[in-house]
Fold:
Amino acid sequence: MTANSTSPTAARPWWKDAVIYQIYPRSFLDTNGDGVGDLPGITAKLDYLKALGVDVVWLSPHFDSPNADNGYDIRDYRKVMAEFGTMADFDAMLAGMTARGIRLIIDLVVNHSSDEHAWFVESRKSRDNPYRDYYIWRDPKPDGGPPNNYRAFFGGPAWTFDEGSGQYYLHYFAAKQPDLNWDNPKVRQEVWDLMRFWLDKGVSGFRMDVIPFIAKTSGLPDLTSEELRAPQFVYAGDPRLHDHLREMRREVLDHYDTMTVGEAFGVRPEKARDLIDSRRRELDLVINFDIVRMDIDGWRKTSWTLPRLKALYTELDQAVGPFGWNTVFLSNHDNPRSVSHFGDDDPAWVERSAKVLNTLILTQRGTPFLYQGEELGMTNYPFRTLDDFDDLEVAGRWRDVKHRVSEAEYLANARAMGRDNARTPMQWTSGPNGGFTTGRPWLPVNPNTATINAAAEAERPDSVLNHTRALIAFRRDSIDLREGDYRDIDPDHEQVFAYRRGKLLVLLNFEREAVRYAVPAEQALHGVVFGSAEIQGQTVRLDGWTSAILEVGAG
Ligand code: TEU
Ligand code: CA
Structure:
């Protein structure tokens, strides 16, 4: 049975205290020289993960796929992607994790499949094919146009016309990612079955790709021009989502000890609360986008401020309520590197600011998600032209806007926010291709692997890697960091992020300039318990881009 609670005082589920490490297998480690990371590469690095101290690995899709969207377009949910290895490689990887006390959660991508999945191959054959209703087909408008004005996230309309059967099918992402029809009970049964297949192998749960999108808006009405600016808030808004998740819970998850984390793209914190309220028996956790997308408007990067960032953390903490629990992350495979986005990736500051950001995600109230390479302070890649990007999102959105935006402007935004920034290979060594492959890597390795790499950082006590390791260990032993209340003590300060977690005070300096920070007298400083800072009375001096955790008591 699941360890999840219906009362805030019930036994604490394991995933609240876990640190989760996300692996994007394509870019982790290549063991056969084909330039693509693989499952044996993960198995080879399990001792590295154990030493880092993470409890759970979230593996981005490892299933058979034609890779229109790097595995987020699944052709066979029960097969391992040939480039990544075999089912025997998967079993060996999972056994290696289990032996080290590391759990594995896998990516459940069931809003859509690949158009090469056998279900869709059948579905498109004819209108009366038994699989027709596995997907969402509609007649053209009288003028031959698509059934409504939905747009796809990777550019163009969300409908593609199928000549053979004379109808359009719906796809929120690429045309090669047709959306499944969750109103069809057979589709739901198929999903429950494939979930059981992997749970029976021993995986501990799922990260659920764009899960709020599975329930489509009744009648599929046109979006208003306002809604078209951010269609995810409509796509995620149908209440039948809750029915589907409860059925999933009853049919599948309640029979295993699992954790689930839904990618809640398009869900505002106050709505997310319903998805994770343990009394409702839907999901355990969701990934909220308000922070990582705080400075994004469509394809365009805007700006962010520290007080705004702080306000979002407080909002999320308050929204979660006594029956929910937050997740905390600053980067994943869909977002730029955290140090380039929220820190300072100038070579002189990159290490310090990466340590500050890793301190932030490991000391907030919630389950931290650390994306591969963040423990090293990996940065965005210096892409030069639009052709340097592999991600279909870059070209797809460019087609949408090129009639009204200059290439230079679009490129500047893609360089800052493009998803490939997070997808360049892991930097293991300073050697050729950063030790990722002996062949030609599918995406180039960042030249800064000369200094930012796991081998060099393991040797240096003050490296980002060793800081992150030490902080994960500190967190494991600190009930204040794992369970303590959260309170921002200075929401308006533009340079220092200062917050209480239980009897601890976390101070983060977000600028190059050193700062003397006066702590209010009612929080008497007892001393520094992690990091470095000078204390004089109630004043703490922090160097530029430095963090410290202090113990405080009643004044
Ligand atoms: O991402 C959906 C999502 O929330 C966006 O971040 C998406 O990547 C895009 O930027 C929307 O504008 C999930 C996966 O994490 C992503 O890798 C997939 O491409 C996508 O779903 C489709 O499966
Ligand atoms: Ca390989």
